[in-house]
Amino acid sequence: MLGSGYRLWHGEAPRSFAGLMAVYESNYRRLLVLAPGLDTLEAAVSRVPGCLDLHLRVLERHRYTTLLHLTYYFDEPGGGLRADPDLTVRVYHDARQAEAVACTRPQRGDGDGCTLAGRWRMNRFLEKWLAYCLAQGHGFPPAARPRRARLAAADPAVP
Fold this sequence. Notes:
Blueprint: H1 17-34, E1 43-46, E2 54-61, E3 65-75, E4 81-92, E5 97-104, H2 116-136, H3 147-154
Antiparallel strand pairs: 1-2, 2-3, 3-4, 4-5
Helix pairs in contact: 1-2
């Protein structure tokens, strides 16, 4: 059990709203290391030998936010696939935060994302899972831009 003097590495009290915001910031930083070209990705699979494939799919993209799905897929005994963990993450680009907004983990039960404690559980899980994925060597490199777009970025005179 944690003593009353415990503080998270980012200096906020655990399970506080301010602490949760610090976890969102940590999630954002880890997600950008995992997917530095998130603004150009639509769907991608990260394959690391000896590890499960990590799947990322953008569900919605808006000016200041991106909603994405992040998961591993497991084969079901009767056929089909099961996503576990089945995470939906909203990325707030302007605030530099990433929040797990839905997390279904069939083997462990669903979390209650409506309460502060539920949001803590989901987002601490995301924070730890992102660190684990990075430690395994997973990553989604930026999507290749067409040659014309690369030239235009390097030289504004290119039509």
